[in-house]
Amino acid sequence: MIMDPIASLLRCESRLFLCIGEINMIRFNSRPLDEIPISMLHDNSVQISYQVLLILPASVEEDPSLKHDWSSSSLAPMSFTVSGILIQPINPTLVPGPSGSHLFLFESSVLIALASSLHDRILDNHLRNVPTVKVGSDQFPYREASEGRGSACQESNAFCCPYCTANVDFTSLGGQRVLEHIGGHILHNPSIDRTLEPCGLCLSSHATCCIYLKKSKSCQGNLKIDHAKSKCLNFIKFLYATAAKSSPSSPCSNVPMPCPLCPADAPAVWRYNLCAHLMRLHPSVPLGPHEHMWTLMNFEVTELSAIWKNRLKQPEARKRKVGATITISEVHSTHSVAR
Questions:
Q1: Helices 298-309 and 175-188: crossing angle, nearest 10°?
Q2: How many angstroms separate the first and last alpha carbons of the chain?
Q3: How much is the average pLDDT of 312-316?
Q4: What is the pTM (predicted TM-score) of this model?
Q5: CA gap 153, 329 in Å, rounded
Q6: Who contacts 68 (Cβ-Cβ below 8 Å, separation ≥6)?
Q7: Residue 214: which residues within 8 A CB-CB, separation 6 or more?
Q8: Does 316 score more than 90 pLDDT?
Q9: Alpha-carbon distance 284 to 7, whole Å?
Q10: What is the pLDDT of residues 160-199, one digit of tens each?
Q11: HSE-up of 263 (CA within 13 Å, CB side)?
Q12: Which parts of 90-194 fold into alpha helices (H)?
């Protein structure tokens, strides 16, 4: 309902932070509504507008029980309109505030759970739709009183290699670098079961990740990723035409390709998985006529072997202008949930 409290996410300095807000508009198919069933929030036609609600460390006067860590303060001059899937309705403790107003009280454990729940929900293609705010405001991200730390929902392990024993962070890497790192695992990691057709972005099986292709609007009608339909835990954009050809600057050619035997609307198959795919779904079809689709040059195999051997060396992130920085509060990070 209008004026109800909600939780959402905002991006700041390439990190995701938990945000508490107050709904000021609901639209369904561009038509304004006063309320909408929770079950309809994930509908693509639902848009929610909200104003950011500031929260501060709770005082003893606001919460004599000392059960809650945070208290609502006032509305910030920041409003956003997002898809309903980025919204989580909440029901915080309500207590009387000054001058007849009311306050919401929050426990840190509840905020952590909210951050984790929202983060898990948007791991696929909705991640790119999270609004961005600039660093430098004292109002957001939310900060602890002691050291000005931000209460963060970080990307956690969403953009890290799921197989490397030491965290290899993909956040600062371009799509081609992610493809070649994961490709090194697929070609050279003996623990990878290639019969499961591991995803070229996250190594999950074909049953978990689905990448769809569509023709671009260019006159050539080249293939490109259909971001709206695709689903992957490590979904990241990459240049399809560049990635499809092995080169010294981009040696991995593992891209999703249309299976020549599957229906046109079927998910694409990663190049490195095409042989396993045909053996699984089309066992009666001879492999010989299709071998050219997955056969690799010695250069690519050799380069991916080198990348595999050096997989734990974290590439340096692109240099950025020095400005205001945010220190993450460990207490409020989703890393606390993952432990």
A1: 90
A2: 35
A3: 66
A4: 0.52
A5: 10
A6: 58, 62, 93, 105, 106, 107
A7: 223, 224, 225, 226
A8: no
A9: 52
A10: 787 775 567 776 678 889 999 999 999 999 988 999 999 9
A11: 2
A12: 108-121, 175-188
